[in-house]
UniProtKB/TrEMBL annotation:
Reaction(s) catalysed (UniProt annotation): Fe(2+)(in) = Fe(2+)(out)
Transmembrane segments: 29-48, 60-78, 116-138, 145-166, 178-197
Similarity-based family: Belongs to the CCC1 family.
Taxonomic lineage: Eukaryota, Viridiplantae, Streptophyta, Embryophyta, Tracheophyta
Name under which the protein is recorded: Vacuolar iron transporter
Coiled coil: none
Protein species of origin: Artemisia annua
Length: 201
């Protein structure tokens, strides 16, 4: 009786979609978008909390938040454009000095200033809209402040989760970092403004 032939030819395993994704290539736009959203959320919420510490008028809070949204979006876009343009200049100069022959591949990986600026500005506006919308329909001052804090807290956790998911980084660490940072910014702004306002300055 012939022995069974147990020899099998190994079949090369193809990479799954998950393994084939180069998450480092997401860094350029992901960094700008996450930074912009968090900055818009925290800075505008902190401005509104600061004004809310000394003024009970909802109109003052909304106008302050809107001004912060416009100024912050412009600042983020310009700052990101300048920063990424400088990075682009450095990388292009380095390519010229080394005489890299694989130019087409390198061009695809070069940073894009306009893309980074647009992503940063849009993300800032998106983040800033959270506290603005949260405060717009609340008449009672104390309830309004509480709703803003609650809405910002939820948004911080969501933004932290999105950043961790897209970048494949630790979920709890990412969410905790943005949450604690946002709380600190709002608390410090509220406390210092309240202190200065109580002294009649």
């Amino acid at each position: 009786m012939a022995a069974e032939n147990n020899f099998t030819i190994p079949i090369p395993e193809s990479k799954t979609v998950e393994e084939s994704i180069d998450y480092s290539q997401r860094g350029q736009w992901l960094r700008a978008a996450v930074l912009g959203a968090n900055d818009g959320l925290v800075s505008v919420a902190s401005l509104m909390m600061g004004v809310g510490a000394v003024k009970h008028d909802v109109k003052a809070m909304i106008l302050t938040g809107f001004a912060g949204l416009v100024a912050g979006a412009c600042s983020m876009a310009i700052g990101e454009f300048v920063s990424v343009s400088s990075q682009l200049d450095v990388e292009v100069s380095q390519m010229k000095r080394t005489g890299d022959s694989n130019k087409e591949s390198e061009d695809e990986q070069l940073p894009n200033p306009l893309q980074a600026a647009a992503a940063s500005a849009v993300a800032f506006i998106f983040g800033a809209m959270v506290p603005l919308l949260a405060a717009s329909f609340i008449v009672n001052h104390k309830v309004r402040l509480g709703v803003v804090v609650a809405a910002v807290t939820i948004a911080l956790v969501v933004f932290g989760w999105i950043g961790a998911y897209l970048g494949k980084t630790p979920m709890v660490k990412s969410c905790s970092r943005v949450l604690v940072g946002g709380w600190m910014a709002m608390a410090i702004t509220f406390g210092l403004t309240k202190l200065i306002g109580s002294r009649g300055l």
